[in-house]
Design goal:
Distance between the termini: 80 Å
Structural class: mainly alpha
Radius of gyration: 23 Å
Number of strands: 3
Largest sheet: 3 strands, antiparallel
Order of helices and strands: EEEHHHHHHHHHHHHHHHHH
Helix content: 40-55%
Strand content: under 5%
Shape: globular
Length: 477
Protein backbone atom coordinates (compact mmCIF):
# COMPACT_ATOMS: atom_id res chain seq x y z
CA UNK A 1 0.00 0.00 0.00
CA UNK A 2 1.44 3.38 -1.01
CA UNK A 3 1.75 5.52 2.11
CA UNK A 4 1.86 9.10 0.80
CA UNK A 5 -0.01 12.39 1.03
CA UNK A 6 0.57 15.97 -0.14
CA UNK A 7 1.66 19.12 1.65
CA UNK A 8 0.28 22.62 1.11
CA UNK A 9 2.65 23.27 -1.82
CA UNK A 10 1.58 20.12 -3.63
CA UNK A 11 4.80 18.17 -3.00
CA UNK A 12 4.54 14.50 -2.03
CA UNK A 13 4.90 13.61 1.65
CA UNK A 14 5.89 9.98 2.30
CA UNK A 15 6.01 8.02 5.53
CA UNK A 16 8.51 5.27 6.22
CA UNK A 17 9.72 3.67 9.45
CA UNK A 18 7.74 6.14 11.51
CA UNK A 19 9.28 9.23 9.91
CA UNK A 20 8.10 11.54 7.16
CA UNK A 21 9.88 13.06 4.17
CA UNK A 22 9.11 15.20 1.12
CA UNK A 23 9.56 14.46 -2.58
CA UNK A 24 9.93 17.58 -4.68
CA UNK A 25 7.71 17.44 -7.76
CA UNK A 26 10.13 19.57 -9.77
CA UNK A 27 12.96 17.12 -9.11
CA UNK A 28 10.73 14.19 -10.06
CA UNK A 29 9.74 15.94 -13.29
CA UNK A 30 13.37 16.67 -14.22
CA UNK A 31 14.43 13.08 -13.51
CA UNK A 32 11.58 11.67 -15.61
CA UNK A 33 12.40 14.10 -18.44
CA UNK A 34 16.02 12.98 -18.25
CA UNK A 35 14.79 9.40 -18.53
CA UNK A 36 13.26 10.20 -21.91
CA UNK A 37 16.41 12.06 -22.98
CA UNK A 38 18.61 9.09 -22.17
CA UNK A 39 16.25 6.65 -23.91
CA UNK A 40 16.63 8.50 -27.21
CA UNK A 41 20.39 7.95 -26.98
CA UNK A 42 19.97 4.21 -27.52
CA UNK A 43 18.61 4.38 -31.08
CA UNK A 44 21.10 7.23 -31.49
CA UNK A 45 23.91 4.73 -30.98
CA UNK A 46 22.20 2.44 -33.48
CA UNK A 47 22.01 5.13 -36.17
CA UNK A 48 25.57 6.27 -35.46
CA UNK A 49 26.94 2.73 -35.82
CA UNK A 50 24.70 1.97 -38.80
CA UNK A 51 25.94 4.96 -40.78
CA UNK A 52 29.57 3.99 -40.26
CA UNK A 53 29.12 0.49 -41.70
CA UNK A 54 28.52 -0.87 -45.18
CA UNK A 55 24.88 -0.75 -46.18
CA UNK A 56 24.53 -4.54 -46.30
CA UNK A 57 24.91 -4.49 -42.50
CA UNK A 58 23.20 -1.17 -41.75
CA UNK A 59 19.84 -2.42 -40.47
CA UNK A 60 21.32 -4.89 -37.99
CA UNK A 61 22.81 -2.11 -35.87
CA UNK A 62 19.51 -0.24 -35.62
CA UNK A 63 17.79 -3.51 -34.73
CA UNK A 64 20.36 -4.26 -32.03
CA UNK A 65 19.71 -0.91 -30.37
CA UNK A 66 16.01 -1.72 -29.97
CA UNK A 67 16.71 -5.32 -29.01
CA UNK A 68 18.92 -4.04 -26.20
CA UNK A 69 16.08 -1.89 -24.87
CA UNK A 70 13.78 -4.91 -24.73
CA UNK A 71 16.21 -7.42 -23.22
CA UNK A 72 17.63 -5.15 -20.54
CA UNK A 73 14.22 -3.76 -19.63
CA UNK A 74 13.16 -7.35 -18.96
CA UNK A 75 16.33 -7.96 -16.97
CA UNK A 76 15.80 -4.91 -14.76
CA UNK A 77 12.04 -4.54 -14.50
CA UNK A 78 10.51 -7.84 -15.50
CA UNK A 79 12.91 -10.44 -14.18
CA UNK A 80 12.91 -9.14 -10.62
CA UNK A 81 9.54 -7.42 -10.82
CA UNK A 82 10.84 -4.23 -9.13
CA UNK A 83 10.80 -5.95 -5.78
CA UNK A 84 10.99 -3.39 -2.98
CA UNK A 85 10.91 -0.44 -5.37
CA UNK A 86 8.00 1.94 -4.90
CA UNK A 87 7.50 5.05 -2.82
CA UNK A 88 10.47 4.57 -0.49
CA UNK A 89 13.27 7.15 -0.84
CA UNK A 90 16.03 6.19 -3.25
CA UNK A 91 19.63 5.90 -2.16
CA UNK A 92 20.57 8.40 -4.86
CA UNK A 93 18.55 11.27 -3.44
CA UNK A 94 15.98 11.65 -0.68
CA UNK A 95 14.14 14.14 -2.91
CA UNK A 96 12.97 11.50 -5.42
CA UNK A 97 11.30 8.13 -4.75
CA UNK A 98 12.90 4.80 -5.55
CA UNK A 99 10.53 4.16 -8.45
CA UNK A 100 11.61 7.35 -10.25
CA UNK A 101 15.28 6.66 -9.62
CA UNK A 102 14.69 3.14 -10.87
CA UNK A 103 13.36 4.11 -14.28
CA UNK A 104 16.12 6.71 -14.72
CA UNK A 105 18.94 4.27 -14.04
CA UNK A 106 17.52 1.59 -16.33
CA UNK A 107 19.01 3.36 -19.32
CA UNK A 108 22.54 3.25 -17.90
CA UNK A 109 22.89 -0.50 -17.41
CA UNK A 110 23.84 -0.14 -13.78
CA UNK A 111 21.45 -2.50 -11.99
CA UNK A 112 22.91 -4.09 -8.89
CA UNK A 113 21.54 -7.05 -7.01
CA UNK A 114 23.63 -6.77 -3.86
CA UNK A 115 20.76 -4.89 -2.24
CA UNK A 116 17.32 -4.66 -3.80
CA UNK A 117 16.98 -1.04 -2.76
CA UNK A 118 19.85 -0.40 -5.13
CA UNK A 119 17.64 -1.54 -7.98
CA UNK A 120 16.01 1.82 -7.49
CA UNK A 121 19.11 3.53 -8.84
CA UNK A 122 19.70 1.07 -11.59
CA UNK A 123 16.90 0.79 -14.03
CA UNK A 124 17.42 3.59 -16.57
CA UNK A 125 21.16 3.12 -16.99
CA UNK A 126 20.55 -0.54 -17.74
CA UNK A 127 20.17 -0.02 -21.48
CA UNK A 128 22.93 2.21 -22.75
CA UNK A 129 26.12 0.34 -21.88
CA UNK A 130 25.37 -3.03 -23.56
CA UNK A 131 24.52 -1.26 -26.81
CA UNK A 132 27.91 0.43 -26.82
CA UNK A 133 29.68 -2.89 -26.26
CA UNK A 134 27.84 -4.97 -28.84
CA UNK A 135 28.73 -2.50 -31.55
CA UNK A 136 31.94 -4.55 -31.69
CA UNK A 137 30.02 -7.42 -33.31
CA UNK A 138 29.38 -5.32 -36.43
CA UNK A 139 29.42 -7.22 -39.73
CA UNK A 140 30.41 -10.63 -38.33
CA UNK A 141 28.03 -11.87 -35.64
CA UNK A 142 24.85 -13.89 -35.38
CA UNK A 143 21.97 -11.90 -33.94
CA UNK A 144 20.15 -14.60 -31.97
CA UNK A 145 22.91 -15.40 -29.45
CA UNK A 146 23.29 -11.66 -28.75
CA UNK A 147 19.98 -11.77 -26.87
CA UNK A 148 21.58 -14.10 -24.34
CA UNK A 149 24.89 -12.26 -24.33
CA UNK A 150 23.28 -8.88 -23.52
CA UNK A 151 21.33 -10.36 -20.60
CA UNK A 152 24.33 -12.19 -19.14
CA UNK A 153 26.79 -9.33 -19.71
CA UNK A 154 24.51 -6.75 -18.09
CA UNK A 155 24.10 -9.01 -15.06
CA UNK A 156 27.66 -10.24 -14.55
CA UNK A 157 29.79 -7.37 -15.82
CA UNK A 158 28.02 -4.05 -15.64
CA UNK A 159 26.08 -4.59 -12.44
CA UNK A 160 29.06 -5.33 -10.15
CA UNK A 161 31.05 -2.40 -11.57
CA UNK A 162 28.09 -0.10 -10.98
CA UNK A 163 27.80 -1.42 -7.45
CA UNK A 164 31.37 -0.67 -6.44
CA UNK A 165 31.11 2.76 -8.10
CA UNK A 166 27.76 4.09 -6.84
CA UNK A 167 26.61 1.94 -3.94
CA UNK A 168 27.62 3.53 -0.65
CA UNK A 169 29.07 0.15 0.36
CA UNK A 170 31.08 -0.23 -2.85
CA UNK A 171 34.84 -0.18 -2.45
CA UNK A 172 35.37 2.69 -4.90
CA UNK A 173 32.60 4.80 -3.38
CA UNK A 174 33.95 4.02 0.08
CA UNK A 175 37.42 5.22 -0.94
CA UNK A 176 35.93 8.43 -2.34
CA UNK A 177 35.98 7.69 -6.07
CA UNK A 178 34.37 10.41 -8.19
CA UNK A 179 32.21 9.23 -11.08
CA UNK A 180 29.18 11.42 -11.56
CA UNK A 181 27.44 9.72 -14.47
CA UNK A 182 29.30 6.57 -15.47
CA UNK A 183 32.89 6.90 -16.70
CA UNK A 184 33.81 3.43 -15.43
CA UNK A 185 30.46 1.58 -15.31
CA UNK A 186 29.25 2.84 -18.70
CA UNK A 187 32.21 3.71 -20.89
CA UNK A 188 35.29 1.90 -19.62
CA UNK A 189 33.34 -1.32 -19.07
CA UNK A 190 31.65 -1.29 -22.48
CA UNK A 191 34.73 -0.08 -24.37
CA UNK A 192 36.89 -2.80 -22.84
CA UNK A 193 34.16 -5.37 -23.50
CA UNK A 194 34.21 -4.28 -27.14
CA UNK A 195 37.94 -5.04 -27.24
CA UNK A 196 37.32 -8.51 -25.79
CA UNK A 197 34.53 -9.12 -28.33
CA UNK A 198 36.77 -7.99 -31.21
CA UNK A 199 39.53 -10.37 -30.14
CA UNK A 200 37.09 -13.26 -29.71
CA UNK A 201 35.30 -12.79 -33.05
CA UNK A 202 38.52 -12.31 -34.97
CA UNK A 203 39.07 -10.22 -38.06
CA UNK A 204 36.51 -9.72 -40.77
CA UNK A 205 36.97 -11.30 -44.17
CA UNK A 206 39.31 -9.12 -46.21
CA UNK A 207 41.04 -7.57 -43.19
CA UNK A 208 44.20 -5.80 -44.25
CA UNK A 209 43.11 -5.47 -47.88
CA UNK A 210 41.34 -2.76 -49.82
CA UNK A 211 38.09 -4.70 -49.46
CA UNK A 212 37.61 -2.99 -46.10
CA UNK A 213 38.90 0.39 -47.27
CA UNK A 214 35.39 1.81 -47.38
CA UNK A 215 33.97 5.04 -46.07
CA UNK A 216 30.75 5.27 -44.02
CA UNK A 217 27.83 4.33 -46.25
CA UNK A 218 25.49 7.00 -44.83
CA UNK A 219 27.05 10.07 -43.26
CA UNK A 220 23.58 11.47 -42.60
CA UNK A 221 22.93 8.56 -40.22
CA UNK A 222 26.20 9.36 -38.44
CA UNK A 223 25.09 12.97 -37.95
CA UNK A 224 21.58 11.92 -36.89
CA UNK A 225 22.98 9.49 -34.34
CA UNK A 226 25.30 12.18 -32.99
CA UNK A 227 22.37 14.60 -32.67
CA UNK A 228 20.39 12.03 -30.67
CA UNK A 229 23.38 11.28 -28.46
CA UNK A 230 24.37 14.90 -27.83
CA UNK A 231 20.75 15.83 -27.10
CA UNK A 232 20.25 12.88 -24.78
CA UNK A 233 23.52 13.46 -22.94
CA UNK A 234 21.99 16.50 -21.24
CA UNK A 235 19.74 14.05 -19.44
CA UNK A 236 22.53 11.53 -19.05
CA UNK A 237 24.78 13.94 -17.15
CA UNK A 238 22.40 16.67 -16.01
CA UNK A 239 19.83 14.15 -14.85
CA UNK A 240 22.41 12.42 -12.67
CA UNK A 241 22.05 15.31 -10.23
CA UNK A 242 18.54 13.92 -9.57
CA UNK A 243 17.38 17.44 -8.92
CA UNK A 244 16.61 20.59 -10.89
CA UNK A 245 19.37 22.66 -9.30
CA UNK A 246 22.57 24.57 -10.08
CA UNK A 247 24.67 21.42 -10.12
CA UNK A 248 22.48 19.94 -12.85
CA UNK A 249 22.78 23.20 -14.76
CA UNK A 250 26.58 23.14 -14.54
CA UNK A 251 26.59 19.50 -15.66
CA UNK A 252 24.65 20.48 -18.79
CA UNK A 253 26.99 23.40 -19.50
CA UNK A 254 30.21 21.38 -19.25
CA UNK A 255 28.63 18.53 -21.24
CA UNK A 256 27.88 20.79 -24.18
CA UNK A 257 31.27 22.52 -23.96
CA UNK A 258 33.32 19.31 -23.85
CA UNK A 259 31.41 17.88 -26.81
CA UNK A 260 31.97 21.05 -28.83
CA UNK A 261 35.70 21.21 -28.13
CA UNK A 262 36.10 17.47 -28.69
CA UNK A 263 34.41 17.67 -32.08
CA UNK A 264 36.51 20.60 -33.24
CA UNK A 265 39.72 19.00 -31.98
CA UNK A 266 39.18 15.66 -33.74
CA UNK A 267 38.13 17.41 -36.95
CA UNK A 268 41.27 19.55 -36.94
CA UNK A 269 43.52 16.54 -36.38
CA UNK A 270 41.89 14.86 -39.38
CA UNK A 271 42.22 18.03 -41.45
CA UNK A 272 45.95 18.07 -40.83
CA UNK A 273 46.20 14.71 -42.63
CA UNK A 274 43.71 15.00 -45.47
CA UNK A 275 42.96 18.73 -45.79
CA UNK A 276 39.24 17.88 -45.60
CA UNK A 277 36.65 19.12 -43.10
CA UNK A 278 35.29 15.75 -42.05
CA UNK A 279 31.79 15.67 -40.54
CA UNK A 280 32.45 12.09 -39.42
CA UNK A 281 35.57 13.33 -37.67
CA UNK A 282 33.61 16.09 -35.95
CA UNK A 283 30.92 13.66 -34.82
CA UNK A 284 33.51 11.17 -33.54
CA UNK A 285 35.25 13.91 -31.56
CA UNK A 286 31.98 15.15 -30.10
CA UNK A 287 31.21 11.64 -28.85
CA UNK A 288 34.72 11.36 -27.37
CA UNK A 289 34.25 14.68 -25.56
CA UNK A 290 30.88 13.53 -24.19
CA UNK A 291 32.42 10.28 -22.98
CA UNK A 292 35.28 12.05 -21.21
CA UNK A 293 33.13 14.62 -19.43
CA UNK A 294 30.72 11.98 -18.12
CA UNK A 295 32.54 11.13 -14.86
CA UNK A 296 33.44 14.74 -14.12
CA UNK A 297 30.26 16.53 -15.21
CA UNK A 298 29.06 17.12 -11.66
CA UNK A 299 32.48 18.02 -10.30
CA UNK A 300 34.29 20.34 -12.76
CA UNK A 301 33.72 23.84 -14.11
CA UNK A 302 33.67 25.22 -17.63
CA UNK A 303 37.44 25.93 -17.97
CA UNK A 304 38.24 22.32 -17.15
CA UNK A 305 35.58 21.13 -19.63
CA UNK A 306 37.60 22.70 -22.45
CA UNK A 307 40.58 20.56 -21.48
CA UNK A 308 38.37 17.47 -21.20
CA UNK A 309 37.18 18.00 -24.77
CA UNK A 310 40.64 18.74 -26.15
CA UNK A 311 42.32 15.77 -24.49
CA UNK A 312 39.53 13.38 -25.48
CA UNK A 313 39.50 14.61 -29.09
CA UNK A 314 43.27 14.20 -29.28
CA UNK A 315 43.92 10.97 -27.39
CA UNK A 316 40.89 9.10 -28.70
CA UNK A 317 41.80 10.13 -32.24
CA UNK A 318 45.32 8.78 -31.86
CA UNK A 319 44.01 5.66 -30.05
CA UNK A 320 42.20 4.61 -33.22
CA UNK A 321 45.63 3.56 -34.51
CA UNK A 322 46.02 0.94 -31.77
CA UNK A 323 44.00 -1.59 -33.77
CA UNK A 324 46.54 -1.37 -36.59
CA UNK A 325 49.50 -1.67 -34.23
CA UNK A 326 48.12 -4.70 -32.37
CA UNK A 327 46.24 -6.18 -35.36
CA UNK A 328 42.75 -6.48 -33.89
CA UNK A 329 39.59 -5.59 -35.82
CA UNK A 330 37.58 -3.06 -33.78
CA UNK A 331 35.21 -2.13 -36.59
CA UNK A 332 33.76 1.01 -35.00
CA UNK A 333 36.71 2.10 -32.79
CA UNK A 334 34.67 1.53 -29.65
CA UNK A 335 37.69 0.81 -27.47
CA UNK A 336 39.42 3.99 -28.63
CA UNK A 337 36.36 6.20 -28.11
CA UNK A 338 34.80 4.77 -24.96
CA UNK A 339 37.48 2.94 -22.97
CA UNK A 340 40.24 5.47 -23.65
CA UNK A 341 37.78 8.36 -23.40
CA UNK A 342 36.51 7.06 -20.07
CA UNK A 343 40.04 6.75 -18.69
CA UNK A 344 40.85 10.30 -19.83
CA UNK A 345 37.71 11.54 -18.08
CA UNK A 346 38.43 9.67 -14.84
CA UNK A 347 42.00 10.97 -14.65
CA UNK A 348 41.06 14.57 -15.42
CA UNK A 349 38.26 14.37 -12.85
CA UNK A 350 40.86 13.43 -10.23
CA UNK A 351 42.85 16.50 -11.21
CA UNK A 352 40.16 19.14 -11.71
CA UNK A 353 37.24 18.16 -9.45
CA UNK A 354 36.19 21.08 -7.26
CA UNK A 355 34.28 20.99 -4.01
CA UNK A 356 32.59 24.27 -4.96
CA UNK A 357 31.07 22.77 -8.12
CA UNK A 358 29.89 19.61 -6.37
CA UNK A 359 28.41 21.74 -3.61
CA UNK A 360 26.27 23.71 -6.04
CA UNK A 361 23.38 21.43 -5.13
CA UNK A 362 23.48 22.76 -1.58
CA UNK A 363 24.16 19.42 0.06
CA UNK A 364 27.19 17.60 -1.41
CA UNK A 365 30.42 17.88 0.56
CA UNK A 366 33.63 16.35 -0.80
CA UNK A 367 37.34 17.17 -0.77
CA UNK A 368 37.68 17.71 -4.55
CA UNK A 369 40.72 16.79 -6.62
CA UNK A 370 44.19 18.20 -7.15
CA UNK A 371 42.83 21.71 -7.66
CA UNK A 372 41.62 21.53 -4.06
CA UNK A 373 44.92 19.95 -2.93
CA UNK A 374 43.39 16.50 -2.48
CA UNK A 375 46.40 14.67 -3.87
CA UNK A 376 45.21 11.10 -3.28
CA UNK A 377 42.18 11.54 -5.56
CA UNK A 378 44.17 10.77 -8.72
CA UNK A 379 45.28 7.43 -7.28
CA UNK A 380 41.68 6.51 -6.45
CA UNK A 381 40.57 7.40 -9.97
CA UNK A 382 43.35 5.31 -11.52
CA UNK A 383 42.51 2.33 -9.30
CA UNK A 384 38.86 2.52 -10.31
CA UNK A 385 39.74 2.77 -14.01
CA UNK A 386 42.19 -0.15 -13.99
CA UNK A 387 39.79 -2.30 -11.96
CA UNK A 388 36.92 -1.58 -14.33
CA UNK A 389 39.01 -2.40 -17.40
CA UNK A 390 40.42 -5.60 -15.94
CA UNK A 391 37.13 -6.93 -14.61
CA UNK A 392 35.22 -6.13 -17.79
CA UNK A 393 37.83 -7.68 -20.09
CA UNK A 394 38.21 -10.90 -18.11
CA UNK A 395 34.50 -11.44 -17.45
CA UNK A 396 33.48 -10.59 -21.02
CA UNK A 397 36.03 -13.07 -22.36
CA UNK A 398 34.74 -15.78 -20.01
CA UNK A 399 31.14 -15.13 -21.08
CA UNK A 400 32.04 -15.24 -24.78
CA UNK A 401 33.88 -18.53 -24.52
CA UNK A 402 31.20 -20.06 -22.29
CA UNK A 403 28.60 -19.23 -24.96
CA UNK A 404 30.98 -20.52 -27.62
CA UNK A 405 30.71 -24.08 -26.29
CA UNK A 406 26.94 -24.01 -25.77
CA UNK A 407 25.13 -25.34 -28.86
CA UNK A 408 23.38 -22.55 -30.75
CA UNK A 409 24.93 -19.69 -28.78
CA UNK A 410 28.20 -19.16 -30.65
CA UNK A 411 28.38 -15.51 -31.72
CA UNK A 412 30.61 -15.72 -34.81
CA UNK A 413 28.72 -15.99 -38.09
CA UNK A 414 29.84 -18.10 -41.04
CA UNK A 415 31.69 -16.74 -44.05
CA UNK A 416 28.65 -16.67 -46.33
CA UNK A 417 26.72 -14.52 -43.84
CA UNK A 418 29.64 -12.12 -43.67
CA UNK A 419 29.80 -11.92 -47.46
CA UNK A 420 26.14 -11.33 -48.24
CA UNK A 421 25.60 -9.22 -45.13
CA UNK A 422 24.01 -9.76 -41.75
CA UNK A 423 20.86 -7.92 -42.81
CA UNK A 424 20.01 -10.40 -45.56
CA UNK A 425 21.35 -13.57 -43.93
CA UNK A 426 20.02 -13.05 -40.40
CA UNK A 427 17.01 -10.76 -40.92
CA UNK A 428 15.91 -11.07 -44.54
CA UNK A 429 15.39 -7.30 -44.57
CA UNK A 430 17.41 -4.29 -45.65
CA UNK A 431 17.86 -0.72 -44.51
CA UNK A 432 17.18 0.38 -48.10
CA UNK A 433 15.10 -1.99 -50.20
CA UNK A 434 15.40 0.28 -53.22
CA UNK A 435 19.20 0.17 -53.33
CA UNK A 436 20.99 -2.71 -55.04
CA UNK A 437 23.82 -4.36 -53.19
CA UNK A 438 25.73 -5.67 -56.20
CA UNK A 439 28.53 -3.19 -55.58
CA UNK A 440 29.22 -4.81 -52.22
CA UNK A 441 28.46 -8.48 -52.80
CA UNK A 442 30.37 -10.58 -55.35
CA UNK A 443 28.50 -13.36 -57.09
CA UNK A 444 28.49 -16.53 -55.04
CA UNK A 445 30.79 -18.40 -57.45
CA UNK A 446 33.52 -15.83 -56.86
CA UNK A 447 33.62 -15.72 -53.05
CA UNK A 448 37.17 -16.97 -52.90
CA UNK A 449 38.51 -15.46 -56.09
CA UNK A 450 37.14 -11.94 -56.15
CA UNK A 451 39.90 -9.43 -55.40
CA UNK A 452 37.47 -7.13 -53.60
CA UNK A 453 37.52 -3.38 -53.45
CA UNK A 454 40.11 -1.51 -55.49
CA UNK A 455 39.72 1.89 -53.86
CA UNK A 456 38.48 3.74 -50.84
CA UNK A 457 35.29 5.11 -52.37
CA UNK A 458 32.10 5.44 -50.34
CA UNK A 459 31.10 1.95 -51.47
CA UNK A 460 33.79 -0.60 -52.36
CA UNK A 461 34.04 -1.08 -56.11
CA UNK A 462 34.12 -4.67 -57.32
CA UNK A 463 35.45 -4.91 -60.87
CA UNK A 464 32.96 -7.61 -61.81
CA UNK A 465 29.88 -7.72 -59.63
CA UNK A 466 27.56 -9.43 -62.09
CA UNK A 467 28.28 -11.67 -65.00
CA UNK A 468 26.90 -10.60 -68.30
CA UNK A 469 24.55 -13.57 -68.37
CA UNK A 470 23.02 -12.47 -65.07
CA UNK A 471 22.20 -8.95 -66.16
CA UNK A 472 18.53 -8.55 -67.00
CA UNK A 473 18.25 -7.80 -70.71
CA UNK A 474 15.41 -5.73 -72.17
CA UNK A 475 12.59 -7.72 -73.80
CA UNK A 476 12.66 -7.74 -77.61
CA UNK A 477 10.38 -5.23 -79.31
Amino acid sequence: MVNITFDSSGDIVYFTNGSAGVYNLGDIAWTLASTALVWIMIPGVGFFYSGLLRRKNALSMIYLSMMTVAVVSFQCDGYFGLKGVLEQPSIGSSRVPALVFCVFQLMFAAITYVHFDYVSIAVLRCLFSPMIAIGAVAERSRLGPLLVFVFVWSTLVYDPIACWTWNVNGWSAHLGGLDFAGGTPVHISSGTAALAISLYLGRRRGYGTERLAYKPHNTTYVVLGTVFLWFGWFGFNGGSALSANLRATMACIVTNLAASVGGLTWMLWDWRLERKWSVVGFCSGAIAGLVAITPGSGYVGAPAAVLFGFMAGTLCNFATQLKFIFKYDDTLDIFASHAIGGIVGNILTGLFAQASVAGADGSTILPGGWLDHNWKQLGIQLADSVSGMSYSFVMTTIILWALHFIPGLRLRCDEETEIIGVDDAEMGEFAYDYVGLDTEIPIRGEYNGNPGATGGSREPHHPQSLQESEVEKPAPA
